[in-house]
Specification:
It contains 15 helices and 13 strands. By secondary structure, the protein is of the alpha/beta class. A 7-stranded parallel beta sheet has the order 1-4-3-2-5-6-7, sandwiched between helices. Helix 1 packs across helix 15, helix 6 (194-200) packs across helix 9 and helix 7 (220-232) runs parallel beside helix 8. The two termini are 20 Å apart.
C-alpha cells in the first residue's frame, strides 16, 4: 500500500462502504508498533476492512508510518507539560480543543457512511480522540499496553466502550478483564537464522552480536555507557560485534567510538528491519517499554532491560519484572550519571557478555514459552466493535 497522509474529513460514499478501524496514538514507536501489528492482522480477520492512523505531528510518527505504507493523519494534540510555563500548558489546551473538534467532525462523517471503530492505543494523541469518539457516539476500544496504565489511559477508560490489556494489571482490576498478550509485528519477528540476519545488516555472520537499543528514539545513557566501555574496557568486546541503535542525536559520536576502539559495529539511528536486528543478537541491552519487552521475548533474545529513568513512577520496570523473576531476562537501573552507570549497568553487561552458559539458560527458557497471536485477537475484537466481524 502506498503511504499517504489522509484528510479525515474527506469522504467518498460508496454503495457498500468497507468498515474502517482508526488507530489513535503516536509520539513514539511504543504506541505505533503495536498498532501496526494489529492493522497487519486486520486484513486477515476482515479482508474488507481498512485502517487509518491518527498520530502526532512528530517526525518519528511520519517516518514509521511512511515506512509501513500506512494511511495516516497527523493531529495537533500535544503532551500535557507544565514547562515552559505558560507556553506548554497553552499548547496542550489548544491542541486538545483542536483535536477534539477536528476528530469529532471527521468521525461523525465517517460513521454516517459506514461502520467505524477507534482503537485507542494510549498517550497524548489518543486521549482527545477518545473524547471526540464518545462525543459523537463512535465505538472505541482502549488497548492498554502497560502493567501500570498511565494517566492518559486512566482518563480514556472513562470514554472507551471496552478496555483490552496486553498484560495483567494487578492494581487496576478494570483494566484486567480482557488480557490478550502483547501485539507484535511480524516484521519484528525473525524468520531467518542468526548468520543470515547478521549478513542482512552488514555484520559478520559468525561473530557473537550485542544489540543495543533504546527503542524508536534511542537512549542517550546507553550511548554514553558504550562509549565509556569502549574507552575503558575495550577487552570485553573481544569476540563480539555490536548493532547499536542510537536514536538521531548520538550516531556520529558512537560510531567514532567503535572505530577508534577497533570494534566491528553497525551504528544506526533507527532500524527498519527489527526482525533481523533481534535475529542477529546473542544478547541485548534494551529499554523495557512494553513493545521492546514483547519483541525481545518473541524472538527469544536474552536481554538486560533498563527502565527509562525519567518516569517518576518507573512504570517501565513493571513491564519486565515478571520475566526477570521467572529467569527470562535481567534488569538493571539506569542511574543517569555516567560514572555510576559504568559501575552498575556496565558491570552487569560485561558479566553477561562473558557468561555464555547463563545466556543459553535464559534463551532455552524463552524458547519454551508458547507463542501467541494477540494482534489477531485484538483485530477481531475491534471488528466486532465496528459491527464488521465476519463480513467478507
Amino acid at each position: 500500500m502506498q503511504s499517504r497522509i489522509v484528510n479525515p474529513g474527506s469522504i467518498t460514499t460508496t454503495p457498500q462502504p468497507a468498515p474502517l478501524i482508526i488507530f489513535a496514538g503516536g509520539g513514539s514507536g511504543g504506541h505505533l508498533f503495536p498498532s501496526l501489528a494489529i492493522a497487519e492482522r486486520l486484513a486477515e480477520v476482515a479482508p474488507a476492512a481498512s485502517a487509518e492512523f491518527y498520530c502526532s505531528q512528530r517526525a518519528i510518527d511520519r517516518d514509521i508510518l511512511e515506512q509501513a505504507g500506512a494511511a495516516f493523519h497527523p493531529l495537533p494534540a500535544a503532551p500535557m507539560l507544565l514547562r515552559p510555563f505558560p507556553a506548554a500548558p497553552m499548547r496542550f489546551i489548544s491542541g486538545w480543543r483542536r483535536t477534539v473538534r477536528e476528530t469529532a467532525s471527521a468521525l461523525a462523517e465517517r460513521a454516517s457512511v459506514g461502520p467505524v471503530a477507534v482503537a485507542l492505543m494510549g498517550g497524548f494523541v489518543a486521549a482527545p480522540v477518545a473524547r471526540a469518539a464518545a462525543k459523537v457516539g463512535v465505538p472505541s476500544v482502549l488497548v492498554n499496553l502497560d502493567v501500570a496504565p498511565g494517566k492518559a489511559n486512566r482518563l480514556m477508560a472513562r470514554f472507551a466502550g471496552r478496555i483490552i490489556s496486553a498484560v495483567p494489571c494487578p492494581d487496576f482490576p478494570a483494566f484486567s478483564r480482557t488480557v490478550t498478550g502483547m501485539p507484535v509485528r511480524r516484521s519484528a519477528i525473525a524468520t531467518l537464522g542468526p548468520a543470515e540476519c547478521r549478513l542482512r545488516l552488514g555484520l559478520d555472520p559468525d561473530t557473537s552480536t550485542l544489540l543495543v537499543t533504546g527503542a524508536s528514539q534511542g537512549a542517550g545513557t546507553f550511548n554514553r555507557l558504550l562509549i565509556d566501555l569502549l574507552a575503558h574496557r575495550r577487552e570485553v568486546f573481544d569476540g563480539w560485534q555490536v548493532l547499536h541503535l542510537t536514536g538521531p542525536a548520538d550516531q556520529s559520536a558512537v560510531r567514532d567510538a567503535y572505530r577508534k576502539a577497533g570494534v566491528n559495529a553497525q551504528v544506526l539511528p533507527f532500524c527498519t528491519d527489527m526482525a533481523s536486528a533481534w535475529g542477529a543478537a546473542d544478547l541485548a541491552l534494551s529499554r523495557c517499554g512494553a513493545s521492546s519487552v514483547a519483541e525481545a521475548l518473541a524472538n527469544g533474545v536474552p536481554t538486560l532491560f533498563s527502565p527509562y529513568p525519567w518516569h517518576r513512577d518507573q512504570h517501565q520496570r513493571l513491564n519486565a519484572i515478571e520475566h526477570v523473576r521467572a529467569g527470562r531476562a535481567w534488569l538493571v537501573d539506569d542511574a543517569i550519571d555516567p560514572a555510576r552507570n559504568l559501575e552498575t549497568m556496565g558491570k552487569r553487561l560485561i558479566e553477561l557478555m562473558s557468561a555464555a552458559s547463563e545466556r543459553e539458560q535464559v534463551a532455552r527458557r524463552l524458547r519454551s514459552e508458547p507463542a501467541t497471536d494477540a494482534a489477531s485477537q485484538i483485530a477481531a475484537l475491534l471488528c466486532a466493535a465496528a459491527s464488521c466481524a465476519g463480513k467478507p
